[in-house]
Amino acid sequence: MLSNIVSKNKAMENAVLHKTAQYYAKWALANFFVLALAGALLRYLQLFSLPINYQFLLHAHSHFAFSAWMFLVIMLLFYKALSPSLTKDFQFQFKGLFALTILISYGMLVSFFFTGYQTLSIVLSALFVFATYWGSALILKSGFFKANRHIANILLIGALICLLLSSLGPYVLAYFRAKGFENSAQQNAIYFYLHFQLNGFMQLASIGFLLRAYWRNVRNTTRLKFWMWLLVVSTFPLYAMFLLWHVPSVWMYLLTGVAALLHLAAWLVILFKFIRECETPTFLIGMALIAITLQLVFQCLVALPQLGAWAFASRNLIIGYVHLLTLGSLTPIFLDLMSKASLIKTSAILNRLLMATVIAYLGLLFVPVCLASFGIYIPNLGLLLFTTNLILPVLALVYLLQNIKYKQTQNIKLNLFID
């Protein structure tokens, strides 16, 4: 009798935790819609005139992407992993973290949109940095890495290290601006933050949770651990790739090339082993795996001096690289993992429409630049980019609308996070 009561109470508590995760997953989808809308507006401003400051909107778009979409979803995945054993205190703190992240995100969206890098925007950006500290502390204090010993935890540890390390970028940037350092030094500080957020924290975390979700019976061999750690460690010197625009020296190209090759080698070893042994991945995950591989190959090509100089001279290639990571790999992984954990629901048609749009958009960013090298130019490219980009907020809105009333209370899927 007592065991039945305890079991029922535990089931009810898990249901409450799951409901909380679902609630903030809907917020994440709403943020994804706002983010896609802002991206489409940026493309519109490149074609038509509106009384909107393009740079202000660009800063608002990027800060909102990092905080309201990618950081929030990753923290939700950690929360879902921990939810069966979270104490009341940790539950309360995670809810506070989610609410604060959303509040700061919309604050930055508005402040950057209207004022750019002014006092309020800087204060809110600093608050977000401290929110990342809070999230990291919660994960470490909760005993996540002691209770869950999947080999992919190596990537999640690396992700948190990169998250904390990325915060040095804003501090150094503030110092450089206060001391009047040249613009190139300030740009390097910004790239430091971007690299350790995107290629470090976000990509390592997404791959880590992907492996935990689909690679259930992996053996923790010393050899595999080596490749996991190499994927993490090679991320650090890969920052040199972002310095090539400013310091295109032989040593910088060599450092970038070695780091990029090691990064790609580690990924390919993990990928091939994953494909051989894992549960069959979904369409979204399959597309994400291709995108990650292409991104890492791109990094190796940039290490070749002529190709590197050509890539950094093209704004569309740089934008394409960033969106290959954010739209090509992170977004499909996030949508798939939240669906697998019953936090949201998706449909095969909608997922395929999303990835078809992403492929079309990336193709319009990469292919015309390559063709231009041979004197071939695509007419009305800006209009094509805007039209394609405009589909993304529509699809994001459909994801949101089909989840507003979604509730999954039976057979709650915890397999995403069980060793």
Task: Give the CATH level 1 class.
Answer: Mainly Alpha
Instruction: Indicate the percent of residues in helices.
Output: over 70%
CATH architecture: Up-down Bundle
Gyration radius, in Å: 21 Å
The count of β-strands is: 0
Low-confidence stretches: 2-6, 410-419
Sheet bearing the most strands, described? none
Q: How much of the sequence is in beta strands? A: under 5%
Q: How many helices?
A: 15
**CATH overall fold name:** Cytochrome C Oxidase, Chain A
Walkthrough of the structure:
It is a single chain. The chain has 419 residues and is mostly helical. The protein has one domain (2-417): Cytochrome C Oxidase, Chain A. It is built from 15 helices and no strands. It has helices spanning 2-45, 54-82, 88-115, 119-141, 144-147, 153-166, 168-179, 183-214, 222-233, 250-277, 283-302, 305-312, 315-340, 348-372, 381-401. Helix 1 runs parallel beside helix 3 (88-115). The radius of gyration is 21 Å and the shape is globular. Mean pLDDT is 90; it is low at 2-6 and 410-419.
